[in-house]
Description:
The protein is an alpha/beta fold. It has helices at 12-15, 20-25, 35-53, 76-90, 105-108, 146-159, 187-213, 227-230, 240-250, 273-302, 325-334, 339-342, 350-358, 367-371, 404-410; strands spanning 3-4, 64-67, 70-73, 95-103, 113-123, 126-132, 167-174, 179-186. Among the domains are: 3-213, Lambda Exonuclease, Chain A (Alpha-Beta Complex), CATH 3.90.320; 235-302. Helix 3 (35-53) crosses helix 4, helix 6 (146-159) crosses helix 7 (187-213) and helix 9 (240-250) crosses helix 10.
Amino acid sequence: MTTHAQLSPSGASRWMTCPGSVVLGEAYPDTGSNEYAAEGTAAHELASWALTEGTDTVAYLGRKIVVEEFTFVVDQDMADYVQQYVDNTRAIGGELFVEQRLSIEHLTGEEGAHGTSDAVIIAGTELVIRDLKYGQGVKVYAPGNHQLRIYALAALAEYELTHDIQTVRMCIDMPRLAYVSEDVMTVDALLEFGKTVARSCERVRAAVQYAENNPGEMHEKYFAPSEDACRWCPVKPDCPALRNHVLTTVADDFVDVTEPIEPQINVEREFDNDTLGNLMAAIPLIEDWCKAIRAKTESELLAGHPVPGFKLVEGKRGNRAWADQSQAEEVLKSMRLKMDEMYDLKLISPTTAEKLHKSGKIGPRQWPRLQDHITRADGKPSVAPETDDRPALVVTATEDEFDDETACDLV
Length: 411
């Protein structure tokens, strides 16, 4: 009998760098999917139907997909987005294996452990691993992606005896972000990564052994907080290593968290841009930690557990809406209001027009006529890491416009 791996491919970016998270994570029950994760599962189900049955996603419009306590209906948006992944997958050709269950027992040492790859394709001498990510928040990159490489190692072990595989291509499709990322490796390079996986698994086993020999303790060498490792870690709000990492990053000296932290404002420029870059790189991890602490506090208060200094209050109320729109409409009509006083009428947006085009109500010859009438404002400058695939804006360096005295006046 196969089991879903504790050292799963999807969690590899965490357990390969922070084995201590595996030990501490055992105390955290699986809370199931949130709505966003469940929606992603529904999108994968739709993609599987289309690829397995040789149809397009529009064939399933209106179909309900139940994921745990959530129910999703396949609408035009979901069909369009998932179809992009389906088209990209079909375009490769070759032998296609959909939702392929792959053994990873030989990689992690967990008996019966497996992972499921969205699509495995063997095209000539190339092994292709395709991954659909339906989220629209954080971009996920194929180069260096541990999850895809573990799937590739598992697929290689499955098919290398029957196929002449020389290269491996790993692809991530994020259709809601109009983004595709790829990474290509030789088989030898992939096998070298497999050795890294083996060493990481040894460190996890060492961490587990340490915890068994030292109940209630865990050596700091088994922790390695980072943005990727901590993003989906269930231990995040309670992790002592992450807490210490955050506090030592934002404070010059040791901070006693049992005492109130006094904010300090200093307008003097005390560090150079190298230090500024290091601090900027730490912000995503710090922000994630702050969100986790806020969520943990809310969870405790909602459970009736007091948190000193904080309480639950009613948030901002929702926008006003008609309790029954048809009844409200009848009442407004009785007031003898004019049509333009009762109803708002406005031109549809380009997005709505595009949906009409995709549904066929705006024909292929008509659609190009609208293109000259669509404009889009340029994006505002935004700070991004150097690894971001967007081109850098060219900005001319200028002298500081304010001296220290002026800066003090602005605080």
